[in-house]
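Forwarding these from the shared drive since the link keeps breaking.
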Amino acid sequence: MREEGAPQKTGQMAGLLGRDDRRSSTEAQGARRKERGTGAGLIEVRKTTPDDAGAIRDIAESLNYVPPGSDKGFLVHVRDEPEYRRILGISTHSFVAEEDGRIVGFLLILTMKELEAVADGIQTRDKVIQYILGLNDRTAVYADQIGVSLEARSRGVGQALAEAMAREHPAAHFLAAIMHWPTQNKVSVRLARRNGWTLRTEIPENGFVWGIYEKLV
């Protein structure tokens, strides 16, 4: 998942995921997963719809990267609501997490075909997106952006989203970009490593360094 960021670039995830939880895609689509957190409500994960764009935009805005960054995680590039709506209309694999009916987290996921379609219409972080698409791996799944509202932190929301992604794609090559410099997004790195992702390479671009993380399942 790359955070998003520098001017003229595309959004990448702020964290990453994917535990080796083997359920069929059909089963994952047909069921909502509930996780009991440490807060008052249950965390429920479901597929996104374009109507989720406003809530996703609000969470993303609350996590907007301001140097030197935050040890609670951040997003480097925040899109506007119409752009989130456009992306949600393209992605068929993204998720939101709800608590008592309110969206408290999201995970944008794109297949390579979907990533190509998204990149055609937005400012693109050229080197990262070109690198991902240049792998020519049609089994690859790109974790573009993840965000958890500040009030829902430390309740397992990010992990629940990561597990939903793994269930949706029981056999895939997961990829994501996480900012390493000038500030490493430690929250995203921890989530990635906890779920078995490893660092593939680093890509410098316009004063930033992005770590490309992957998991093969």
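-- next protein --
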Amino acid sequence: MIVEKHTMTIMEMLVLRARLRLEIAGLSGGRGPTALSRLRKHGYRGQRLKVLADLSRDIDVTLNPKLAAQQ
């Protein structure tokens, strides 16, 4: 899933990916919504590992548009 509405900047995506990795490892980010719940509001669905894989793919495509042509 590529974020077409441009509602998330690349920095937000990178921060949420780092927070999601911490959540998978068992560390909480403190108060407030989890990274997974914030990503679900942006349309990502599935378990944590699937969301992490989808988000990482979207970050790679955003940073290197040539990857989108290969898929």
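The helical segments are 10-25, 35-41, 48-63, 66-70. The first helix runs from residue 10 to 25.

- D.
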